[in-house]
Amino acid sequence: MPINQLRLGAVAAALALLAATSSPSFAQKKYDTGASDTEIKIGNIMPYSGPASAYGVIGKTEEAYFKKINAEGGINGRKINFISYDDGYSPPKTVEQARKLVESDEVLLIFNPLGTPPNTAIQKYMNQKKVPQLLVATGATKWNDPKNFPWTMGWQPNYQSESQIYAKYIMKEKPNAKIAILYQNDDYGKDYVKGLKDGLGAKAASMIVMEESYEVSQPTIDSSIVKMKATDADVFFNVTTPKFAAQAIKKMAEVGWKPLHILNNVSASVGTVMKPAGLENSQGIISSQYMKDPTDTQWKDDPGMKAWNEFLDKYYPEANRADGAVVYGYNVAQALVQILKQCGDDLTRENVMKQAANLKDFVPGGVLPGVKANTSPTDFAPISQLQLQRFKGETWELFGEILSGDVGG
């Protein structure tokens, strides 16, 4: 009898121990809509059609990367269910797609929706609903405003910082420059213009001889280039998306206008801008970069780019490897995976934002050496470093040091 009692006591103790050790892990599992033991539902909005459709490959790259993650067992055992919709770069359509993702598809978050006007259109809605609008694909400065918009976070270096870096370069290389600016007539374009003016300071008024805006619905910006040439400007600041950037480069060659040409980073893709515009017409253009250029042979044996190529071989073989947008999609998808890994078993929207605001020296495989993603509860701008580059031959050549602009939030 005592032996049986001892056995029962031992079993009871073992059960008590089991309960004590296992119950906290059950207690720690927290889910909001869009997450469960088996899946994490991620929404996405991309311009697969319309004037910014060159960027659609970002969504396709992300989809391929999440397939890779799922094939390798998912994130903490959960598979990613990636739901991506087309908005044609039209803000009313973005609103419609965001509502569908949040209210019908019931996603945990919307990841990397593209474009400044589309993201502006859904920012208030996402924050009212308290659904993360995470790592948005636009460098507008306003995505770094955790106080007023705690559910919205950017990813790439902000446009004003980038412009300030160009302003410093112009002041050094051409202190008496006559600058003509072509910009998209929305927050994206205006952000770049503001950064340049801030960087030029008191000299902005005398140096800028023309500011011309265009609408994204226009078929062409050829007439703007002709007007700008007539001003005799010797610096051209080209704030355009890929389709219009390629048009500008082509038209400048046609009319024989050869200023110092500064092109915003969002259109520095060899595959979607330089090649269509003509490599011979693209020589000497200045831009900036924070990612490795896949056409640059210096990264041939780079472990990060080797992994990128292996990923594409297996999961997205039809990708255009000369397109910087494919590297962009790869990098930002890696950042989301890192955030979700940090969430562990607490997949609440609140914890997603908490972890997103706690990136420490995270280095995706396709960024330049020295570039790291860092965030905090008061700084929602993961990447703030850039390096200047000049187009030569068939590729970009980096020069100078890794720089940061002066804009925080």
Provide tags for this entry.
about 400 residues, alpha/beta, Rossmann fold, 13 strands, single chain
Describe this structure in words.
With 409 residues, the chain is α/β, with parallel strands linked by helices. The protein has 3 domains: 2-31; 39-157 and 298-378, Response regulator (Rossmann fold); 159-289 and 389-404, Response regulator (Rossmann fold, 3-Layer(aba) Sandwich), CATH 3.40.50. Helix content is 43%, strand content 17%. The protein contains 13 helices and 13 strands. It has helices at residues 2-28, 56-71, 91-104, 116-129, 159-173, 187-200, 204-207, 222-229, 242-255, 270-277, 303-315, 324-343, 349-356; strands at 30-31, 39-46, 79-86, 109-111, 133-134, 179-184, 208-214, 235-239, 260-263, 286-289, 346-347, 385-392, 395-404. A 4-stranded parallel sheet has the order 3-2-4-5, with helices on both faces. Strand 4, helix 4 and strand 5 (133-134) form a beta-alpha-beta unit. The radius of gyration is 24 Å and the shape is globular. The termini are far apart. 49% of the residues are buried.
